[in-house]
Specification:
Blueprint: H1 11-17, H2 19-30, H3 44-49, E1 53-58, H4 60-75, E2 81-85, H5 86-89, E3 100-106, H6 112-120, E4 128-133, H7 139-143, E5 146-149, H8 162-179, H9 186-207, H10 210-217, E6 225-230, H11 234-249, E7 252-257, E8 275-278, H12 284-293, E9 302-307, E10 318-323, H13 331-350
Parallel strand pairs: 1-2, 1-3, 3-4, 4-5, 6-7, 6-8, 8-9, 9-10
This protein binds 6-O-phosphono-alpha-D-glucopyranose (G6P).
Length: 367
């Protein structure tokens, strides 16, 4: 596998563009046409049979993939799911539901807090542990009962891109594996498998929007703050979009569930606070528009990532970026890719060290 930059200016951009291949490799390496329990390691079937709930623990970008997975596990598989950052999980007294699987998610497999969470969790409290990791033979891989290895390949950019989206592929496969034990219809399983198979194409179509996203990114260069909004499963997508922007462009970015805008952050919206909305096609945009109506006079500006079939068009102070039309389950991945490109272009134009942002490390192996 090549870790050369090739024609790309930065590893981050190279890794963004590698996603169609990485997503396909992650799905195909272990699945093909159906999702076998054995994709999660020896003994997965027995452990999965006993799972009644899932506790996800992770840090940073990997925490955000866990947040997305919670929607899938609860909505599609009917499995209760909690998600917590490792540095909180490990330091509090918890009450564990019986039948809970501990699921850690980590690109490196070495993050100190996540590893400590696994070690301290108390094996007796869980039916088993599963890790979704990108690095084989890492500590989390060695110490977990079950393992799913994402096939992102080496990720060099400190800001995680292809590791995140391949984690989501693994998590959707995991949702099917648990769902079929919990009454998920065969047609639903097939629909999810089909979406996973077509995913690389939708991501490719998103990469083709690169020039449009670059153009949109120019508005962010002079700004110091930004808000990212999403509802439901797109709220963690907004969180990941905000994290990416702050990590590499040093613009303060905060994510809010869209409905909370009017409970505080709306007071801050002015011409130094662009609002990004991950709003594929629901009624969210109409609500946001009426919220923002009030701040237009102060220069409030909205950037909306919406399904191209939703028929939204740009208007003064509302810029719509039409996204590929794709199945619901593909959207968290597809929209994330667009937000990765947005952050990348803002950072490059600001002249930051995109692959090695200040003060951050690729792998945080000490507390
Ligand atoms: C660091 C990296 C992030 C990463 C996080 C968790 O903060 O800069 O990109 O998401 O660690 O790392 P992990 O390897 O456990 O996914």
């Amino acid at each position: 596998e090549s870790v050369e930059l090739g024609d790309f200016d930065h590893y981050m951009l190279k890794e963004i563009y590698e996603q169609p291949r990485a997503l396909a490799a992650t799905f195909n390496a272990t699945a093909g046409h159906e999702i076998a329990d054995s994709a999660f390691g020896e003994g997965a079937a027995d452990i999965f049979d006993r799972v009644e709930a899932v506790q996800i623990v992770a840090c940073g970008t990997s925490f955000h993939s866990g947040m997305v997975a919670r929607y899938w596990l609860e909505e599609l598989a009917g499995i209760p799911c909690e998600v917590e950052v490792a540095s909180e999980f490990r330091y509090r007294k918890r009450v564990q539901h019986p039948g809970t699987l501990l699921l850690t998610i980590s690109q490196s497999g070495e993050t100190a807090d996540t590893l400590a969470a696994l070690r301290d969790a108390g094996a007796d409290d869980f039916v088993g542990s599963l890790v979704i990791a990108n690095v084989d033979n890492s500590s989390l891989v060695r110490e977990s009962d079950l393992v799913f290895l994402t096939r992102a390949g080496t990720e060099i950019g400190v800001a995680s891109t292809k590791a995140f989206t391949t984690q989501l592929v693994a998590l959707l496969m995991f949702t099917v594996a648990l769902g079929r034990r919990n009454g998920m219809a065969a047609e639903k399983q097939q629909e999810l498998v089909n979406a996973l198979q077509k995913l690389p194409d939708f991501v490719q179509q998103t990469l083709e929007l690169d020039a449009d996203i670059k153009q949109l990114s120019e508005a962010f260069i002079p700004k110091h703050h930004s808000l990212f909004l999403g509802r439901g499963i797109h709220y963690p997508v907004a969180m990941e979009g905000a994290l990416k922007l702050k990590e590499i462009s040093y613009i303060h970015a905060e994510a809010y569930p869209a409905g909370e805008l009017k409970h505080g952050p709306l007071a801050l919206v002015d011409d130094d606070m662009p609002v990004v909305a991950v709003a594929p096609g629901d009624e969210l945009l109409e609500k946001l528009k009426s919220n923002l109506e009030e701040v237009r006079s102060r220069g409030g500006e909205l950037f909306v990532f919406a399904d191209r079939q939703a028929g939204f068009i740009s208007e003064p102070r509302i810029k719509v970026l039409p996204m590929p039309h794709c199945p619901e389950v593909a959207k968290p991945i597809v929209y994330t890719v667009a937000l990765q490109l947005l952050s990348y272009h803002v950072a490059v134009q600001k002249g930051t060290d995109v692959d090695k942002p200040r003060n951050l490390a690729k792998s945080v192996t000490v507390e």
